[in-house]
């Protein structure tokens, strides 16, 4: 039996990014993904590899949607140290990412009421915005805080 997922490309990860150690489930299929944390906030990124592309060697829209979901929902993990689910994701596709592009995404919390987080997000490569949109996310289960999360910082500080 063969596996059509190519080995990860050799490339230099942009400064500040570290690989996410997500090895199970869906994320294993679409990775590798990376995370950056700094004074400017939290971002995620990935290199567009052959297994992310459509027939035109652009990042598949489903890949970009999945990445937006994770990159934008990640702020709920940072804020609450919780697992979360997506309630709604609204995206506007503005441009495409090409094979070999480094794609980044981040979001900001607009509101958090009644157990729901509303965020605004952006996905880009270089100077080109690929997607803008909003998401509604719901924390569903608390977990131990991880480095970079507010609860972890409070416990460590």
From TrEMBL:
A Pfam family: 4HBT
Top-level taxon of origin: Bacteria
Endpoints of the signal sequence: none
Coiled coil spans: none
Region Disordered: start-end pairs: 138-157
Thioesterase domain ranges (all copies): 58-130
Gene Ontology molecular function: any one: thiolester hydrolase activity
InterPro entries reported for this sequence: HotDog_dom_sf, Thioestr_dom
Name by which UniProt lists this protein: Thioesterase
């Amino acid at each position: 039996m063969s596996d059509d997922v190519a080995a990860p490309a050799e490339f230099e990860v942009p400064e500040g990014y570290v690989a996410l150690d997500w090895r199970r489930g869906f994320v294993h299929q679409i990775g590798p993904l990376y995370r950056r944390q700094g004074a400017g906030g939290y971002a995620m990124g990935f290199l567009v590899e052959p297994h992310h592309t459509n027939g035109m060697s652009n990042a598949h829209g489903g890949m970009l949607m999945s990445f937006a979901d994770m990159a934008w929902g990640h702020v709920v993990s940072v804020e609450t140290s919780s697992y979360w689910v997506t309630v709604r994701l609204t995206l506007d596709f503005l441009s495409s990412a090409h094979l070999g592009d480094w794609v980044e995404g981040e979001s900001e919390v607009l509101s958090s009421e009644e157990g729901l987080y509303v965020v605004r997000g952006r996905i880009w490569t270089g100077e080109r915005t690929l997607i803008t949109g909003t998401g509604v996310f719901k924390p569903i289960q608390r977990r131990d805080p991880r480095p970079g999360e507010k609860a972890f910082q409070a416990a460590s500080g």
